[in-house]
Write a structure and sequence with these properties.
The complex is a heterodimer of chains A (465) and B (404). With 465 residues, chain A is mostly helical. In chain A, 62% of the residues lie in helices and 2% in strands. Chain A has a two-stranded antiparallel sheet with strand order 1-2. In chain A, α5 packs parallel to α8, α7 crosses α8 and α10 crosses α11. Chain A is globular, with a radius of gyration of 23 Å. With 404 residues, chain B is α/β, with parallel strands linked by helices. Chain B folds into 3 domains: 175 residues, FAD/NAD(P)-binding domain (3-Layer(bba) Sandwich), CATH 3.50.50; 122 residues, FAD/NAD(P)-binding domain (3-Layer(bba) Sandwich), CATH 3.50.50.60; 77 residues, FAD/NAD-linked reductase, C-terminal dimerisation domain (Enolase-like, domain 1). Chain B contains 10 helices and 25 strands. A 5-stranded parallel sheet of chain B has the order 3-2-1-7-19. In chain B, α1 packs parallel to α7. Chain B is globular, with a radius of gyration of 22 Å. Classes of the chains: A mainly alpha (465), B alpha/beta (404). At the A-B interface, α1, α9, α19 and α23 of A face α1, α2, α4, α7 and β21 of B. Chain B: This is FAD/NAD(P)-binding domain-containing protein. Chain B: InterPro entries: FAD-bd_OxRdtase, FAD/NAD-bd_sf, FAD/NAD-binding_dom. Chain B: Belongs to the FAD-dependent oxidoreductase family. Chain B: GO terms for molecular function: oxidoreductase activity. Chain B: Keywords: FAD, Flavoprotein.
Chain lengths: 465, 404
């Protein structure tokens, strides 16, 4: 479109740095940003100098306190604006529209993941900062030898969900659906993915992730892991049984009644990060048909690969065929590297500000693939369109984090039933005309009446088809 | 058969789609000088606000036009010659047609205040209006919006997102009195004021002052309100001036029940059309999105040889006043009594007469169109409708109950 309005024409200039004309931070928000800046500075100094190791407690306080408290203060600053859908300026924001700030954050996150996975020694300067908390939570120091870098990572991850969760709670406070859903992901991350597992480590028990199962926990059913868990005793065996129950019973039943959202935007840690820290980037998902095609090949391909790798490992283990064992080991190692590390971490989170917050969930997650197939073919869940009310404004599609062209359905009056939909509900929230509704009730009463012609002419003319 | 459609708003585009659906062979040409890419006019405000980019507002993806073999011509229609069946274009010469649809929409109506011609005084309808507004509001810190209609409130919202101080001048003593009950007017006024808009009810504009461009609005009681931009939302008029006397027109192009004009092989639909005999519940000129869509479909099928009477069924419309959504079904302002509920933030009103529901108006409550339509169509008794309220609700899960 050549004749762009000035707002968009100026966008290139505005995306340079902090010059989004719709963003006018309040005093509270500026204070929050300053504290976040302090936290980041503490991390950088600790990383690049011996000061962090020499004074771990004050540095830990400044780093985690700055990020945590600053983020919360910044989020609470949103209370100054009236409750409601506040997306103004999103498309011209340097941070949110792939401007300089967005690129800087994307590169920094990507670098962090690359170092974490492939050169953990590079994080040595930061580990002392995690040390006090590590001693408190898992009764051991944070060192490279005992996975201290993963403790640090999980701590930062949980902090991001909690802090940006506060921002999401403020931002979506007009909608109880979003408030409850956000509290849910915050609970699962802080308690079930952080506090409980590390507490169990303190008790000399295996780390237990109650809400996390195969195929997301991709090596759960690998022969060596099964042997390891059985050796752990009762809790280990219980974890195995629980893993089987989760994927074989809980998942199909809950997905039948509620759609895949029960997991993807209420429970899952990846989803939790996407819905909180990733919320500012949700609109950056690719809506093209090509992306949809790629999504189906990739996500189902990953599911097929991990299923095949698991089976292969068992065949190799049971049949004790040496060369098969080598092949299976290679496949599972490659899976861990390419999918577990590079796809889920580096691309999945590192590229938030460039490709949106659900790249991993959409293109890579094998759990999402299973849930999606169930949702598409065996679920009551749907997004219902309210008669002929769509004004084609495009906000539903624009803000869909899964890249679904919701408008395509809405303006045709069709219900949206898509494998990828995580049921976050944002399409329905941003719709200025109340056209969309997430439903999973049986199709009776009002719901079935939605199937009757809403308007004779619409029906006669087949206007929506 | 060559079908030419003048105007690529929702009426024109819907007509083009329906011609194609009913006739695989027809040659369809869509003419507009506004933009090559038909877009949702209702979303213009969101582009200004930075909520959307232009590409989000496209009605269909680019491939849609090739797949449906709809040709798009960016040119301005200057005149129509129905005898020779030709349309004169500014750049493209004459375009011959077999069937023609006039779907040229509206133009904003500006009252003849002194100073109405100054730069920075404008309405909002076309993309070009948006671009002008973009340029006119660059360094503006204070603005006025005149006219309490749906465009007026959109203008106020747009300006607020740029941090502009807005004085909103509405002539009536309460907000949209012909549409809302007193309680509803109050809810809407609260919603507007919650965003820092200085809403002045009962305020009449006398003139706009400025040297070359707007600097202030002066009200009838001589108050001078500084305003570097004056948004005008005092209504729209059918865009029919270009037609001369090619077809019979009153306010809009006069059309029969099948949306045919006085000229052979010429139809009209949408904002620019005026029904000679409006069906019950419809107005002769109805410049709203949904009816333009229905008229476009009707005319499209008519041009493809499947004439149908325009029968829009139970009326519906919707809007959003800053954060407050509004839906309306049926007749909510005709004779009758109101059953009304509000909790101070949301409101629900059912207009009933002769023991039957006539219309439903909801503020901050989402309703299901199918259910409300059924109440009105089948003339449900008020009590029965109230017991059916759960089925009518379209609010998201966990939304607070309506404690009646």
């Amino acid at each position: 479109m050549p004749d762009l309005p000035l707002y968009n024409a100026r966008a290139d200039a505005d995306l340079a740095l902090f010059s989004n004309p719709a963003f006018r931070p309040t005093g509270v928000q500026k204070l929050g940003l300053a504290l976040v800046g302090l936290g980041l500075a503490a991390f950088v100094v600790a990383l690049a100098s011996p000061f962090g190791a020499a004074h771990p407690v004050p540095f830990a306080l400044a780093a985690f306190g700055g990020l945590g408290l600053g983020g919360v203060v910044y989020g609470l600053g949103g209370l100054a604006a009236p409750a409601g859908v506040r997306n103004e300026g999103t498309m011209v924001s340097s941070n949110e529209a792939r401007g300089a700030v967005g690129w800087a954050i994307g590169l920094a996150l990507t670098a962090l993941y690359v170092v974490l996975y492939f050169w953990p020694a590079g994080l040595a300067g930061l580990l002392p900062l995690a040390d006090p908390l590590s001693r408190l939570m898992r009764d051991q120091p944070a060192t490279l030898g005992n996975g201290g870098q993963w403790f640090l990572y999980t701590t930062l991850y949980t902090l991001a969900v909690a802090v940006m969760g506060v921002r999401a709670l403020v931002r979506y406070r007009h909608s109880r659906y979003h408030v409850i859903r956000t509290l849910s992901v915050m609970f699962f991350q802080t308690v079930l993915a952080f506090a409980l597992p590390f507490f169990l480590v303190t008790l000399q028990q295996p780390e237990l992730y109650v809400h996390y199962t195969w195929p997301l926990d991709y090596d759960l059913f690998f022969p060596w892991r099964v042997a390891e868990l059985r050796a752990e005793g009762q809790l280990g065996v219980a974890m195995l049984v629980w893993g089987v129950v989760m994927i074989a019973v809980a998942t199909p039943v809950l997905t039948y009644f509620f759609g895949k959202r029960w997991y993807c935007s209420w429970v899952c840690g990846c989803g939790g990060l996407a819905e909180t820290a990733g919320d500012p980037y949700r609109h950056l998902s690719d809506k093209s048909l090509g992306a949809w095609k790629l999504e189906r090949w990739l996500v189902h391909g990953v599911l097929a690969t991990i299923t095949a790798a698991t089976l292969l490992l068992w065949v190799a283990a049971v049949a004790e065929v040496g060369w098969l064992d080598a092949v299976a080991e290679t496949v599972s190692w490659l899976y861990g590297l390419l999918i577990g590390s590079i796809f889920a971490g580096v691309v999945g989170v590192g590229f938030y500000p460039l490709l949106g917050s659900r790249v991993w969930c959409r293109f890579g997650c094998p759990m999402a693939a299973i849930l999606g197939l169930q949702q598409r073919f065996f679920s009551r869940f749907r997004i219902t369109t309210n008669g002929g009310q769509c004004i084609s404004c495009g906000q539903c599609s624009a803000y869909c984090e899964m890249g679904i062209d919701v408008k395509w359905y809405a303006q045709r009056g069709q219900n949206v039933v898509r494998a990828s939909c995580v049921g976050c509900g944002v399409c329905a929230t941003v719709c200025p005309r109340g056209v969309l509704r997430l439903e999973n009730g049986p199709d009776v009463g009002g719901a079935s009446r939605a199937g009757r012609p809403v308007n004779n002419l619409i029906e006669d003319l087949d206007i929506l088809a | 058969m060559h079908v030419v459609i003048v105007g690529n708003g929702i009426a024109g585009v819907t007509a083009a789609r329906h011609v194609r659906k009913a006739d695989a062979e027809a040659h369809v040409t869509l003419v507009s000088d506004e933009t090559a890419t038909p877009f949702a006019r209702t979303a213009l405000m969101y582009v200004y606000m930075g909520v959307l980019t232009r590409s989000h507002t496209a009605l269909y993806e680019e491939r849609f036009w090739a797949e449906n073999r709809i040709d798009r011509v960016v040119d301005r229609a200057l005149a129509l010659d129905p005898d020779r069946q030709r349309l004169a274009l500014r750049n493209g010469g004459d375009l011959a047609y077999d069937r023609l649809l006039i779907a040229t929409g509206s133009v904003p109506f500006l009252p003849d205040w002194p100073g109405a011609g100054l730069d920075g005084v404008q309405g909002l309808y076309h993309l070009q209006d948006l671009n002008r507004m973009e340029a006119a509001t660059v360094e503006v810190e204070r603005a006025a919006v005149v006219g309490g209609g749906l465009i007026g409130v959109e203008l106020a919202e747009m300006l607020r997102t740029r941090g502009v101080d807005v004085t909103f001048l509405v002539r009536e003593e309460r907000y949209l009195p012909r549409v809302f009950s007193e309680a509803e007017s109050a809810l809407v006024a609260d919603a507007i004021r919650a965003h820092g808009v200085d809403l002045r009810l009962g305020a009449e504009v006398d003139r706009v002052e400025g040297q070359g461009r707007a600097e202030a609005v002066v009200t009838a009681d001589a108050e001078r309100i500084p305003a570097g931009f004056v948004g005008v939302g005092t209504g729209v008029r059918p865009n029919v001036g270009w037609l001369g006397d090619a077809v019979e027109a009153d306010r809009g192009v006069l059309v029969d029940a099948a949306l045919r004009t006085s000229a052979a092989n010429v139809w009209a639909a949408g904002d620019c059309a005026q029904l000679r005999e409006p069906p019950v519940g419809a107005r002769a000129v109805e410049p709203i999105w949904y009816t333009a869509r229905l008229q476009g479909a009707t005319a499209g099928l008519g041009m493809a040889g499947r004439p149908l009477a325009y029968a829009p069924g139970v009326f519906f419309n919707s809007a959003k006043f800053f954060d407050l959504e509004w839906q309306v079904y049926g007749a909510t302002s005709t004779d009758g009594d109101d059953w009304e509920w509000t909790d101070g933030r949301r409101g629900l009103r059912i207009r009933h007469a002769d023991g039957a529901v006539r219309g439903v108006s909801a503020l901050g409550v989402r309703l299901r169109q199918a259910v409300c339509t059924q109440w009105v169509e089948e003339e449900w008794a008020l009590d029965r409708a109230l017991t059916d309220l759960d089925a009518a609700r379209f609010d998201p899960e966990f939304a607070p109950a309506l404690t009646l």
